[in-house]
């Protein structure tokens, strides 16, 4: 039963020894915690024979004060302690030692903010170096397979082309059709205020030929394909299947990565072309029903758009595809042996892929505008 006298810590004359007295129980937890927090440096010795009552809360505070390992030694070398009290101290000390130290409290001062920014920059640099190295490994593997065509995995290539390309046609076509309809409707609403509704066709055509067709397709592929690649390769890594391939003298990059990368590089331009057609179809539907533009006028306006605008959008597709596939596969290789690690890296692959696609698209758009293309 807990007493009424709260526990105290009394420092001996040598300044290194503390004597614990009173009740070290949950009843006096707040006062005991203030007492232990007031100790500026960990003592070398703690005398426990003055404790009247002790429970798990008090033993935990003592373990935090001197450390789990040190408390276990003190309890074992204190024959004057009752056996039950010694067993409680040793049990709590073992539990605290297994748990390790608590993470430091989060601070948001200027120095901490700079430290976080520096760590984020360092991590980003390390990830970029790893990505560049993995890109080099994929290109080197492709070069070896190009020299020796018998190493190509055509069955795997066709399978991945079906799963990443053919199966993605409905979602890509539906999204781009809806986006094309929305752009045409907004364009007709705004341009109609100036009597220029006829230019709605040009708005839809230029936006989809140059940007939206390939960009929406790449974002869909980043969310759909990169995550699938990461989850599949990450599961193989967790099940040690990749290690089994290496033990047999086989290259996981050649077997698992290269067919996926080539499949995405081949199908993304095709999907982008389908996306452009679907977007123009959505815009044409709104132009026909809302703006009352005849089909012949719509087709004429589309045919008058210079070809370079279509090429400016389509030329970006292979680069988007390559980066999406490489990032998805790389994150799968980085996944650990747990389901949580696979999930974390799957999310990371989607975020990185979308970020890289949008960044590269912005740089390409500025470059094409500068060269007048």
TrEMBL record:
Where in the cell is the protein located?
Answer: Cell inner membrane
Ranges that cross the membrane: 130-147, 168-191, 203-223, 261-290, 310-330, 350-369
Q: Does the keyword Coiled coil apply?
A: no
Name the UniProt record assigns to this protein:
MlaE family lipid ABC transporter permease subunit
Q: Does the keyword Transmembrane apply?
A: yes
Per the record, GO CC terms?
Answer: ATP-binding cassette (ABC) transporter complex
Top-rank taxon, per record: Bacteria
Organism expressing this protein natively: Vreelandella halophila
């Amino acid at each position: 039963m807990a007493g009424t006298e709260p526990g105290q810590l009394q420092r001996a004359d040598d300044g290194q020894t503390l004597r614990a007295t009173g009740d070290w129980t949950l009843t006096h937890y707040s006062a005991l915690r203030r007492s232990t927090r007031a100790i500026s440096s960990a003592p070398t010795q703690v005398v426990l024979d003055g404790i009247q009552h002790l429970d798990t809360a008090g033993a935990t505070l003592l373990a935090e004060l001197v450390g789990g390992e040190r408390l276990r030694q003190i309890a074992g070398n204190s024959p004057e302690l009752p056996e039950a009290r010694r067993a409680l101290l040793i049990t709590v000390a073992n539990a605290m030692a297994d748990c390790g130290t608590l993470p430091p409290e989060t601070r948001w001062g200027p120095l901490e903010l700079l430290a976080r920014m520096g760590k984020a920059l360092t991590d980003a640099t390390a990830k970029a170096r790893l990505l560049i190295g993995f890109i080099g490994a994929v290109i080197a593997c492709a070069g070896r397979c190009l020299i020796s065509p018998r190493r190509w995995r055509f069955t795997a290539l066709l399978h991945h082309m079906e799963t990443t390309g053919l199966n993605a046609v409905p979602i890509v076509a539906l999204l781009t059709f809806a986006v094309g309809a929305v752009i045409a409707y907004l364009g007709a609403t705004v341009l109609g205020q100036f009597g220029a509704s006829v230019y709605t066709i040009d708005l839809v055509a230029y936006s989809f030929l140059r940007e939206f067709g390939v960009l929406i397709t790449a974002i869909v592929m980043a969310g759909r394909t990169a995550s699938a690649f990461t989850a599949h390769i990450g599961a193989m890594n967790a099940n040690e299947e990749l290690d089994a391939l290496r033990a047999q003298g086989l290259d996981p990059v050649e077997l698992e990565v290269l067919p996926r990368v080539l499949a995405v590089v081949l199908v993304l331009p095709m999907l982008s072309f389908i996306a452009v057609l679907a977007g123009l179809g959505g815009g044409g539907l709104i132009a026909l029903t809302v703006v009352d533009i005849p089909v012949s006028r719509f087709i004429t306006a589309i045919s008058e758009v210079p070809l370079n605008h279509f090429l400016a959008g389509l030329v970006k597709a292979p680069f988007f595809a390559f980066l999406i596939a490489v990032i998805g596969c790389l994150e799968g290789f980085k996944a650990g042996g747990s389901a949580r690690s696979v999930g974390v890296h799957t999310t990371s692959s989607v975020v990185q892929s979308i970020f890289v696609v949008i960044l590269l698209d912005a740089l390409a758009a500025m470059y094409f505008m500068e060269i007048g293309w």
